[in-house]
Amino acid sequence: MNIIEKTENIFEHFEKFIELSEKLKSELSQRIKPIEFKKGELVLDANHICTKSYFINKGILRTYFLKDGKEISEYFSGINEWVNSPKSFILRKKDIYYIDAIESTQAYFINVNDLVYLFDNFPEMERYARLSMGSVFGHFMERIISMRFTTAKEKYDHFRKTYSDIYHRIPLGMVASYLGITQETLSRIRAEK
Amino acid sequence: MNIIEKTENIFEHFEKFIELSEKLKSELSQRIKPIEFKKGELVLDANHICTKSYFINKGILRTYFLKDGKEISEYFSGINEWVNSPKSFILRKKDIYYIDAIESTQAYFINVNDLVYLFDNFPEMERYARLSMGSVFGHFMERIISMRFTTAKEKYDHFRKTYSDIYHRIPLGMVASYLGITQETLSRIRAEK
DNA sequence: GAATAAATTTGACCTATATCAAATAATTTA
DNA sequence: TAAATTATTTGATATAGGTCAAATTTATTC
Fold first, then answer.
1. Could you tell me the superkingdom of the organism this chain comes from (chains A, B) (predicted)?
2. Distance CA B86, CA B132 (A)
3. Which residues of B touch A138 (CB under 8 A)?
4. pLDDT digit string (tens) for A5-46?
5. Is strand C in 7 Å reach of the CB of B187?
6. B134 interface with A at CB cutoff 8 Å
7. What would the pLDDT profile of A39-82 be if each residue is shown by its tens digit?
């Protein structure tokens, strides 16, 4: 798959929510650039402001934060998803989140300034942002429900459903911290059946 | 406080995110209407599509869903906040959420069709929606963190911080289901100290 | 303002999951 | 590919918070 085809993925993603004019496509193409990360590489350090948003083409990025010196996984992002540190990116100030690459990852990125330019000049981009945030919203609400009521096993089942395409590629310890259970408990859940 | 002053609250809320032209103010005023709910009254039945978004002026609305026949509180909304059933309102289909009034409540509402008209004709409304959703997003992320790692007591402390102005007006059972702990445990937490 | 209903508290007991510790297994690096 | 590091599993024990039941307090209704 070459670079031109990859850009098509992003356009397809936009077109789930809005129509893309040729003019907007051209402006997007000029501002969206490819980038690669090696397995284990840090994509965002929480000590810096997040100025880029990444659209994943291949691989998995993980967002996490530190609690008592330990890495707590916040979410995982696979193909055809945008990743950034939301509050940091939008408010242009530091937040608690780090981002790293669980696997070697190919992505595209756009700078926050370029995005702002697009928001200012293409009202449909505002609409895209509103609508695409809405769908992420739904996932968050579902997750809040799943975190509250389920046993550790039910939480794990929900995780596998949510991340059905990539769950098996995420190390056990990261899954455990994502679910808010211990590694030992998760290991035992996996063992039975 | 009369109706005109109340509308000012909504305008102030918008103006945290965007500038309101006189034209837009006038269009908003024509579409935003007052409504009242008695204590205990059902605002939205999950068997219907949510076609209105409510901006609270006084009182508290609660969003909840049913699990095994029991009401599970999802969130509480106080003064100067919008309330609706997000997925139902945006996607125009049924969702699991009910909304009721914990206290006698004064609110304003706008119909989804009117909102769509505003989105179509005032790009700054799209921006308002994007930016205001962003701040709700932050709260969700914080809540997901708080639900995962804290003891029941820490969860309750976080709840009191999040709802510092209204937490004492919400019945214990509703708080417990919001936090995903039992009433008994919450009662014991409240008792000590 | 009794009577009734609903919400909250208190008690006794039990279970899922945490914690601590050590053994394997898998992955990385020299 | 052997050594070293890191991840996962397994075992023994402790405990926070769940469950069930009943008492008490508070709110609602006639």
1. Bacteria
2. 13
3. 86-87
4. 567 889 999 999 999 999 999 999 999 999 999 999 999 999
5. yes
6. yes
7. 999 999 999 999 999 999 999 999 999 988 889 999 999 899 99
